[in-house]
Every structure is written in C-alpha cells, then in structure tokens.
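Input chain follows. Return structure tokens only.
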Amino acid sequence: MIPRLTLLFLLGGVPSLLGQAAPTASRAADVQIGVSYTLARPGYVQQTFQGVGGYADVDLNLHLGAEAEFHQTNSTNGDQSYQRTYEVGGRYFRTYGPVVPYAKALYGRGDYIYPTGQTGVSYNFFAAGVGANFKLGMYLRLRAEYEFQKWSSFQNGGLTPQLFTLGVAYHFAGKPRYQ
C-alpha cells in the first residue's frame, strides 16, 4: 500500500516538474540604448551650445531603474569651447500606455574647455532631470528631457548648465518578469 501511495505522489508531481519555471521571453531587467541631440546653456557664457550624446537605461523593476549618459556640446559661435559630461544615477518612471514619464538624479564628471580651446577644467557634478520616453512599437523609443546640472567648486560660484535633449533608442524587446 505504501509503495503505491509513494508512486502516486511522485507521478502526481511529474507535470509540475516538467513545466517551465518562467516564460522563455522573461528577463531580469528592461534595457534600452540610444543616441541624442542636445541643446545646452552652459552657465558660463550666455550662448547656446549644441551637440550629441548617448544613453543607456536599465529598468530593474516596475518603477525604478538606472541610467548612464554622455553629452558633448560645442559652442555655436566658433570659439572652440565645449562641455563634455559623463554621468550615472537612478531614475523613477511610470508607464501610461505608450508614454513613460520619468525623473532622474545623477552624479557625474564634466569637462569645460574655455574659448580658443587652450584651457580646460574638470569637475564633479550633480544633476536632476525630467522627461518622457514615447513607445513607437516594440523596438523604438523617442525621448524628450530637461536636465539641470550643478558643478561643484567651479570658479565664481559654480557652473549650472541646463540641457534639453531629444533622443531615439533601441529597446531590447521581450516581456520583463515584473509585468
């Protein structure tokens, strides 16, 4: 009698042992990598810089993720001055259909090259930003964002660049495990 019960118990568990633990299209994070066009007010001179950048987002759960960014903005008046920044931090986002608004806080390192390109300084900075990603199908995302940076220890009370960025990203499709 006991061997039969044991056999029935083991055979009853076979279907669950053969089933998948998770769908094959699930993953631990949601990832997108993009390029951007940036307009910047450098905070040192009253002119507009423009340039390019890149970014990567890794969303770890339903509302929290991480972001890494790079910006290279150049003076538009030909004086060879520019700002280059590298930054990384966290972001909070919500999803409303095809629109994904977010807020972010970043820490980074920035280089400012003065006019004529002969003198340069590098400083650490903190940044905060808001923006939105717009889903265009499964693989494409458009982005619009505003970012404010505060460079520490910059002469004359600090440097406070403001950036407006438009971007496009490739989204690595698949169903995240948290949705």
